[in-house]
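Researcher: Let's continue the batch. This sequence belongs to Kef-type K+ transport system, membrane component KefB, and it's 394 residues. Same format as the previous ones, please.
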Amino acid sequence: MFRFLTLFVAAFAVAALLGRTPLFKVPSAISYLIFGLLLKLPALHLTPMDAWWLRRLGDLGLLFLMFLSGMEIDVHLLFRKRDDHREGTSPAVIGTMMFCATLLFSFVCCASLAHFAPDGANPYMLSLLFATTSLGVVLPVLEETGYLHRPLGQAILYSAVIADFMTMLLVSLLLGAHKSEDPWQVWLTLAIVPIALGVGLSLEKLRQVPAAGRLLGQAMERTRATIALVAIFAILAEATGSEPILGAFLAGVIVRGLKFAHKPLVATYSYGVGYAVFVPMFFVATGYAMPIAQLHAVRALYWLPVFAVLAFTVKLLPALTLLRFHGKRQAWAAGFLLSSRLSLVAAAAQLAVNAHLLPEIWAASTILVSIISSLIGPLAWAILAPQLPPVDSR
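Model: Same format as before. Here are the structure tokens for Kef-type K+ transport system, membrane component KefB:
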């Protein structure tokens, strides 16, 4: 316990220090990844028991991270009518077109690269890693710069939401297909989606019953119920052959979509528990598990620039769809911002390595490229997109 508490305090100290550098602030997730890499140093050698605890806490942190990512998705956006008809094509249509084009470009490029993989790689899994977008990065940037409720921001948001959700769904389906060749078992992995829909509709009906509200109690009790919902969905996903991270993700979508008393407090408590305790341990465990030593090999070094170019190209080319509606600078800015990807890439890459769908060298290179994109994307957006005053969404 003493070693674990020392590790936790040291991780917080490193993240706080890197996040307050004068010239360039490092995001906390990347700071924890860096700390995980530092744990590989001989002076900070972890015992097998320490490494076991770190992996288990990392697994729990991954579930919380996917749950909180699901809470970033507002399902009502998919059914909301557009208020301004003078802007031409709907932002939902533009965002969908951008993601479909990204997925197509990504698959074509990754199918070509898979032939050069050192140990073989699944082109479908690799293309999904490059097609995704970190909604947790995109949403705060759009809100801080005043674009969230404007047509350009809505198009970017739709594309990020669809990319986050569809990537999570397709990764789970691909892993299920890899585990079992039975078509029925493969489709059973998607059973968690209609289950989540049924649970969401049932909770929405139950919300209208006064006795149910009294039974759930105040904010603290509702937070416990929320965490229990995450555990239940993770268990259901595992039982259907899907990935528990998909169940946790869908639980977050349900919580975000429901309207209930004390919801802001429940969200605050959930973010506090997740981002303060468990999610950092996931990134520390991911950094510790990265085969960074293999990147010194000559055969691994040249994949970093290749993956970096690919990561930005598959987002910048589809973003040219915005040229007609928003101009050149905004289109390039959107492409760079949508290139930000970290949390889902780190999780899916580790799962792909465990399932032997991706070589460890490529997984480590992909995670490093996702770190680079999460740093460059928001910075390029800030340079290219003009600052706007925030728009009141009420």
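Researcher: Any comment?
Model: The radius of gyration is 21 Å.
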